[in-house]
Fold this protein.
Amino acid sequence: MKSKQQRQLFYLVPYGAWLLLFVIAPLVLLLFQSLTNANGGLTLHNYAVYFGSGTYLRMTFNSVWFAFLITLITLVISYPMAYLLNQLKQKQFWLLLVILPTWINLLLKTYAFIGLLSKTGTVNNFMSFFGIAPQQLLFSDWSFLLVAAYIEIPFMILPIFNSLAEIDPKLEQASRDLGANKWQTLRRVILPLSMPGVKAGIQAVFIPSLSLFMITRLIGGNRVITLGTAIEEHFLVTQNWQLGSTIGVILIVAMVVTMILTRDRVKKNTRK
Amino acid sequence: MAEQTPIIEFKSVSLAYGDTEILKGIDLSLEQGKFYTLLGPSGSGKTTILNLISGQLAATSGDILFENKRINDVPVEKRTVNTVFQDYALFPNMNVFENVAFGPSIKKMSKNDIERQVHDMLKLVKLDQYADRDISELSGGQRQRVAIARALANDPKVLLLDEPLSALDYKLRKDMQYELREIQQRLGITFVFVTHDQEEALAMSDWIFVMNDGVIQQNGTPEDIYDEPINHFVADFIGESNIVDGIMKTDYVVHFVGKDFENVDAGMRPNERVEVVLRPEDLDLTTIENGKLIVTIDDQSFRGDYYEITAIDDDGNEWQVQATNSAQVGERVGLTFDPEDIHIMRFNESEDDFDARLESYEDDDEE
């Protein structure tokens, strides 16, 4: 028994080392830095600045709001798409086509959108046939939402697709057999059973969307300022690492809250 | 038997996927309030028939009638039949009450009516104490009961059961057979039960359809099918059988294993080649002098209420015998049986021909 335990401990070493070096240590450093001033003394000054400033709070609200919109848009597109993909015969192949764009570098995809949306870009070229070009498409909230949603959609589709694929087709048959039409079956059987996938998708999209910064700059033209942009500014431009860390801590707290809100509560629901 | 309008009728119904024929011209007619069984090995098309009645599958050709109306194009949810699925297919996101209430709530029944209906159904399957349980907390037998209650909660005119007992252990299966039969008789609705277990079929059914290769091989009461199997497949599939080749010399005389035997079959061509069926329980061990057949005991196993004996005759034919007394392996003994224990099967005789022949010489007997 003892040797077995020791062996298990041994297998945990790589995981433990990873956890310590790349998760726990950075978090501690981040938290520590957020509690210091430029001379290294302990202070709550950074948090006072953050919570005392309308700009930062607006930025935070902006981040959450845009992340919410991105999540909502991807969810509305992804659920029906995942549902349809699941009905197809070669579903794994079609799913692969959806996943494929995630293998391409994010920056490349973003530049591709600049080419599409700029004043001399493909979309404006096309619209000039109707005499409504050139339009300012880039550097708007809409273009930011469009590109962000495009980038995030595969991460929403994949978990939803998986949870739908796991549902026993017999359950759909049983529902129809008991008198439910397709829509009632979707609402009362399929949708509730695919909620774990929806929650996982929301986590996978909402949390990264909170800290998007490249797209905000390249597509949003810095008109959309999010927490991600603010952190980048503080670390790279104003060199105020302390305040940057503070915003980082706020971001992590926001992520933890999201995870708590979307965690699997199946047990609780059924035991009322 | 009084003529009744059938509740379900199949008129030369076929189903094919490309070149693969699953059902080949099925004709059948089911009456109100009876317990029917579709019996056959896997791949025989029995579950396909169930899916055609429920509407999960569509026939390639032929008509399916429900109370004399063609229902080929009626969608699943509009049919007044319900199904108990093989693996129960209970909704895991709902508790017992919600599962049973699913059908009634889709029908927009009032809250009180739903509660009364669910309560009645759970009581019928003896699960009224379990309404608030999660599906994951139930045993296999209890899930089975929930599935039955859920299907019955819609007050179907026909209940379809797709191998519902196959996942249960032996004792539970026996109890459920009895209980299902009782529920069917209490409610007076038609049950269509699919199984590959011939014992189950014989024990529960009013009427059995024996299926193989997408064709109904024979249909009739359990007694008819057991006593008068129409061909090799049915004789072999229903119960244990000894089947040997023989020649029907004249009416009431059959020749097999080198001897002539008196029997009770007639209506065949003189010297027609036939198959002869003798059931193991109809064979008795006796002395060599009294034996109609002389055999050597090859193997014996104790089955509780009888001994299962394998014996070999001098021509090398194997004989299964169910005997109340034990014998010695290697011992030479006689086998005896009565003329009415011999059942004759003609090659390629259809059910209609079989029935007609039976009637022709049974009428002769009465005259």
Observations:
- The mean pLDDT of chain B is 92.
- The CA atoms of residues 251 and 268 of chain B lie 7 Å apart.
- The first strand of chain B starts at residue 8 and ends at 17.
- DSSP finds nine helices and 20 strands in chain B.
